[in-house]
From TrEMBL:
<feature type="binding site">
    <location>
        <begin position="12"/>
        <end position="15"/>
    </location>
    <ligand>
        <name>ATP</name>
    </ligand>
</feature>
<feature type="binding site">
    <location>
        <position position="54"/>
    </location>
    <ligand>
        <name>UMP</name>
    </ligand>
</feature>
<keyword id="KW-0547">Nucleotide-binding</keyword>
<feature type="binding site">
    <location>
        <position position="166"/>
    </location>
    <ligand>
        <name>ATP</name>
    </ligand>
</feature>
<dbReference type="GO" id="GO:0033862">
    <property type="term" value="F:UMP kinase activity"/>
</dbReference>
<dbReference type="GO" id="GO:0006225">
    <property type="term" value="P:UDP biosynthetic process"/>
</dbReference>
<comment type="function">
    <text>Catalyzes the reversible phosphorylation of UMP to UDP.</text>
</comment>
<feature type="region of interest" description="Involved in allosteric activation by GTP">
    <location>
        <begin position="20"/>
        <end position="25"/>
    </location>
</feature>
<dbReference type="InterPro" id="IPR015963">
    <property type="entry name" value="Uridylate_kinase_bac"/>
</dbReference>
<dbReference type="Pfam" id="PF00696">
    <property type="entry name" value="AA_kinase"/>
</dbReference>
<comment type="similarity">
    <text>Belongs to the UMP kinase family.</text>
</comment>
<feature type="binding site">
    <location>
        <position position="59"/>
    </location>
    <ligand>
        <name>ATP</name>
    </ligand>
</feature>
<keyword id="KW-0021">Allosteric enzyme</keyword>
<feature type="binding site">
    <location>
        <position position="169"/>
    </location>
    <ligand>
        <name>ATP</name>
    </ligand>
</feature>
<dbReference type="InterPro" id="IPR036393">
    <property type="entry name" value="AceGlu_kinase-like_sf"/>
</dbReference>
<comment type="pathway">
    <text>Pyrimidine metabolism; CTP biosynthesis via de novo pathway; UDP from UMP (UMPK route): step 1/1.</text>
</comment>
<dbReference type="GO" id="GO:0005737">
    <property type="term" value="C:cytoplasm"/>
</dbReference>
Amino acid sequence: MGNPKYKRIMLKLSGEALAGTNGFGIDFDVVNRISQEIKEVVDLGVQVAAVVGGGNIWRGRDGRSMDRTTSDYMGMLATCINALTLQDSLERMGVITRVQTAIEMREIAEPFIRRKAVRHLEKGRVVIFAAGSGNPYFSTDTAAALRAAEIEAEVILLAKKVDGVYDSDPRINKDAKKFDKLSFYEVLEKDLKVMDSTATSLCKDNDIPIIVFALDEPGNIKRALCGENIGTLVGNL
Ligand code: GTP
């Protein structure tokens, strides 16, 4: 499989990734499998930061009849539940972790302090960033891009249900074509929805490449990290 190409990575997991096939809540078998994969990567000496979404519990857009900001704050709380779940699972496997939240809840976890997060990473701890960016109207993709820039991660691994970026939805169009590589410009111009446009622009402006790949396939985090062509690479090409 080769050696890891990156020393410090940001892993973005969607909330749905933790739900398994039932689409809602937390599937502990799935969480443990993801943790096992993260452990393998940590064991290679790679510094791992993670941002987890919250869509398996609550999505901002679920609250259609609600005040948008209230609904978004509920989504941020959902990411905290997922972050603690991942922390627990990783620590059961002997991986040392720290959770940092964008909204202070000191009894539960550390607040986000950039320099402390970097220090944790340097010590080989997995740092899980929770509560998104702490702001409504921003997605957890944007939080992942922001934190990746702040901690100087070399790449964002964007774990999805599909195995890359296609020119149309592969679940609907069987002739959909997968891209091996894409520029940020193309993603924005073609409105390809890899991440939302705020997150994509942040990565573009800060030159942080994104590898989009499927999480379902065991071993894929390590493969993506070792430069195997398993998904779509988005960058300033
Ligand atoms: P270093 O000693 O700097 O390497 O890092 P450390 O995280 O081990 O030190 P610290 O003494 O800050 O933290 C010890 C434990 O307390 C860790 O599990 C932290 O996650 C936790 N901790 C630190 N600050 C807070 C906080 O504000 N709230 C909560 N809930 N836990 C915290």
